[in-house]
Amino acid sequence: MIATVVIGAGQAGLAASHFLTARSIDHVVLERGEVANSWRHERWNSLRLLTPSWQTRLPGLRYDGTDPDGYMTAPEVTEFIERFAKVCGAPVRTGVHVTSVRRDGDGYLVRTAEGDLRSRTVVVATGACSRPAVPAFAAGVPAPVVMITPFQYRDPGQVPDGGVLIAGASATGVQLAAELARAGRRVMLAVGEHVRLPRAYRGRDVLWWMAESGVWDQRYDEVDDLDRARRLPSPQLSGTGETLDLNALTALGVELTGRWAAVRDGHALFSGGLRNVCALADLKMERLLDTFDEWAGGGSGERFEPTRVPAAPRLRLDLTSGEIRTVIWATGFRPSYDWLDVPVVDAKGRLDHDGGVVASPGMYALGLPVLRRRKSTFIYGIEDDAREVIDHLAGYLDSVPR
Question: Is the domain covering 2-130+335-399 a CATH 2.40.160.40 domain?
């Protein structure tokens, strides 16, 4: 029986391996594809990290390139994570698809297509973005309309001619809307709850402010509404160095509508709450900037124009008219635990854990939103989480007789 099986060889699983090795805990890292698999195969061509390169680090390895204020491409992130796997000597087995994990005596039975493993503990490091979250009403979209997800999208040349309707205005949605609009495509963006941020504030990247002011270091047990914090959409940022909010998209010719709520008789139906949603996002951004100013000891930077909302945004759209040829579902992502045969997943598919300590003895998780801190899902944020989770795991191994 091995001490620990880590499932997933992205930054979270490899960070776990680093600290397991430091504690001389026998383990193996299982990966269904290749190291950094999602960065290799589930990203569009122009994608860059939202965090500046100087902020890219993993335990014992920091960005050492020539453009610290730039934003790394997906191939560059892949290479960085691959290098980390080699530096920390992670015992990774690639091409191993885990089909089941279940309790087995005082440990776990991990079934794979390549054979079974028994372990005393398991670290689930498969991330929060295993599959796109496509709403059920997508089934009502008329057949002539092509539907794709961010996992399938690569570049504008892949999208059929004609109008494009993008559902979702978080980081993914605004980036794809801008790219398609700049390629000369007619784009509509259905906007729900979102987090508006400027790319820079008072001469610094906004994520510098998030880190230095302590916002990102806020612990999960200090957050007032943890469930809501874990469901917040990713901020409207891109790795282009520009502010990419709804005003920037409007200037590019993107048409804004309210949240896509349903499909009925071939028509897309949109919420009438666009103005309220945008006003709330503007208010929250202003409050955050005030927090930065207070931390800085006074003064203030520029304040930004309120979101420009159409006077009469559309409430319905005929999907059979040919006006829209493609729908892109940028409606978020969710984890996949179909292989987890342990009663620790709720009806909404969320893992039951307390700061990464899963509600099953000897099971742990890493890489989920606000797992232990607000920065948990960012590459630079995994080190502290992994250290503390593996500390707990080591204490568990010491407390339970072999």
Answer: no
